[in-house]
Amino acid sequence: QRRSVSKLLTESDNLRAALDHAMELKDGDVISRFLKSLLWLWISRSQFTEGEAWVTKALQRTGGLVGSRERAIVTEVAGWLKIIAGDWSGALPFFQDCLPIYERLQMQSETAMAKMLEGIMRLATANDPSGLAPVQAALQTFRDLDDQTGIGLTLTALGECARLEGRNEDAETCFAQALAAMRTAGNTYWTLALLENIAQVRLQNGDWV
């Protein structure tokens, strides 16, 4: 991942030119694949302003593709940027929009991810206990698919909810399990984030050592 980030940064101008060209052509397939591929680069570099600017333009350019796979991907990317930037309530409508599209198209992994995120948003922003069931269902789907990244993201989300509720022991358990999954997946970004989450939980418990 580190090597990829370095290479992509040297190609930033070319990437922006290519993405801008796709926007002008209103090519939904290229736009959606570009955004999905660049999402975690933007997040890892905290380039939220740039990411959101491209997503806003993409939502305008794909307005005629409502209900399509391409539109669902763009919408999901928009939701992810909101989540990582800390705007959980702002993220919820995006996952509510893309979930039924993924379900209709029978995209199993994407459905599970959107279902998990939509459920977590309801738990965290509206204290809606009915949000827990889809999260648990998504976790089981990821386990059935042996999708370590999906498992890790779901457990991370459950850990964040536990931490918000003051259940620090449950939060650390979720984060530790998520960390193991992300290490198995070889995901550098989330390994770092989860180590930091565990450290913060221990600090909150007074465990400075």
Protein described:
The chain is mainly α. Helices cover 82% and strands 0% of the residues. It has eleven helices and no strands. Helix 10 runs antiparallel to helix 11. The longest helix is centred in the middle third of the chain and has 19 residues. The protein is globular, with a radius of gyration of 17 Å. The model has no long low-confidence stretch (mean pLDDT 92).
Tell me briefly what this model is.
The chain has 209 residues and is mainly alpha-helical.
Looking at this protein, list some descriptive labels.
mainly alpha, 209 residues
The chain-level structural class is mainly alpha
Number of strand segments = 0
Which bin fits the share of residues in helices?
A: over 70%
Measured distance between first and last alpha carbons: 30 Å
List low-confidence stretches: none
Q: Note the beta-strand portion.
A: under 5%
What gyration radius follows from the Cα positions, in whole Å?
Answer: 17 Å
Q: Average pLDDT value?
A: 92
Shape designation: globular
The count of helical stretches stands at 11
Q: What is the N-to-C order of secondary-structure elements (H for helix, E for strand)?
A: HHHHHHHHHHH
Please give the largest β-sheet. Answer: none
